[in-house]
Design a protein that fits this description.
6-stranded antiparallel barrel; about 375 residues; 18 strands; single chain; Aminopeptidase; 9-stranded mixed beta sheet; globular; Elongation Factor Tu (Ef-tu), domain 3; 2 domains
Length: about 375
């Protein structure tokens, strides 16, 4: 999940011409029906921070079709192409999502919850929750006092996380404890849907779409590999990882010379958002390239040059401090890693119905695969 920052439209932006209006199956080098099926399975599989095992298994199963696959104790999953190549490039997209965790079960059998990651509590009110219980999935609903009996002075007040409870249909605490335990994680029970104009709406797009995209970029690199060893990593615990999470562990173990992080950023093409504050990233606008304090100017330049050469539309995001993504941890791992950040415009972030464009995903995958092919052992990433 990115931090707020300024953004400007690239003065050399290229329009995606007629391809913008085509359907998914007709878009050049776009995705097959099997790719979309994999993406929807990845989005639908619950996996909040610290509990990413289920979607990680889905990711590794797909990666094993064309790459060497491993996992580590931090929850990261790795897929390698051209293992004998040099230098090593790490492609990182975090696979965790925001969620909730059971903190208390009262005598009446209601489960109280705390946040995993950053929530607007208003989003949770009235939602259906899917918990991962000891004996399998448990469904419940977030309770809400009816508007008819809320005191007038309380009607304009926002919900607070500590006041939210989940009703799983239990008669009492004893019955609830047969289904749930303190510490069980949950997510909003919202499945991925396809929308017109090659758009996908789902929870967990932040940042399951990043994990999908780095694997897609690796797949395309494998079809026409360059000199570099490229490792796609579905990183863990980004949504809670002020300490670096799985990205820091992964970068320390892989010892990459270069890293490209893929995350989502704020799309501004909807009502009630200020362009002067948040820039002009929009759906179908292409990759968003971050330029700033933690970003290698060499990696940024390579990404920009490949985008211009391939006529891939892009915007530039300015980050004067940290980025709020895995890039912050990776760029200072070990002796330092030359790091770039490419983001996908995302509407309604941290909601059960985030929306992205598959045209943007396609362009990001093409950009990253193309950039990896330009990197050799002679590429100098020293800041000068």
């Amino acid at each position: 999940m990115p931090m707020l920052g300024s953004m400007e439209r690239s003065s050399r932006q290229h329009a995606p011409d007629a391809a913008r209006d085509r359907g998914v199956v007709n878009y050049p080098t776009m995705f097959t029906s099997k790719s979309i099926e994999f993406l929807k399975q990845l989005l639908d599989t619950p996996g909040p921070s610290g509990f990413e095992g289920a979607p990680a298994k889905v990711w590794r199963a797909e990666a094993s079709k064309f790459a060497e696959v491993t996992a580590d104790v931090a929850g990261n999953s790795m897929a390698v192409v051209n293992p004998g190549g040099s230098p090593t490039i790490m492609l990182a997209g975090h696979i965790d999502e925001i969620g909730v965790i059971v903190t208390y079960i009262d005598d009446d059998g209601y489960a109280y919850i705390g946040p995993i990651g950053g929530w607007d509590p208003q989003v949770l009110v009235g939602q259906r929750i899917r918990f991962s219980g000891r004996r399998g999935d448990v469904l419940g609903v977030v309770g809400k006092i009816p508007i008819h009996i809320i005191r007038p002075e309380d009607r304009e007040k926002g919900a607070r996380m500590r006041d939210l409870w989940v009703d799983v249909g239990a008669r009492d605490k004893k019955e609830c404890l047969t289904m749930l335990s303190v510490g069980d994680p949950g997510v909003i029970d919202a499945r991925a849907i396809e929308l017109p104009n090659s758009r996908i709406a789902s929870r967990s797009i932040d940042n399951r779409i990043g994990a999908f995209t780095v694997l897609e970029a690796l797949r395309r690199y494998a079809e026409k590999p360059g000199k570099a060893k490229v490792v796609a990593v579905a990183t863990a615990q980004e949504e809670i990882a002020y300490h670096g999470g799985g990205a820091l562990v992964g970068a320390a173990a892989l010892r990459p010379q270069v890293a490209i992080v893929v995350d989502v950023t704020f799309a501004i093409d909807h009502p009630n958002i200020e362009k002067k504050e948040h820039g002009e990233a929009k759906l179908d606008g292409g990759p968003v390239l971050t330029r700033g304090a933690v970003i290698s100017p060499v990696v940024f330049g390579l990404l920009r040059d490949v985008a211009e050469r391939k006529k891939i539309p892009f915007t530039v995001h300015a980050a004067g401090r940290d980025t709020g993504t895995d890039a912050d941890a990776i760029h200072i791992a070990r002796e330092g890693v030359a790091t770039g950040l490419v983001s996908i415009p995302n509407r309604y972030m941290h909601s059960p119905s985030e929306i992205i464009s598959l045209h943007d995903v396609n362009n990001v995958a093409e950009l990253i695969a193309g950039t990896c092919r330009t990197i050799t052992s002679k590429t100098d990433f020293t800041a000068r």
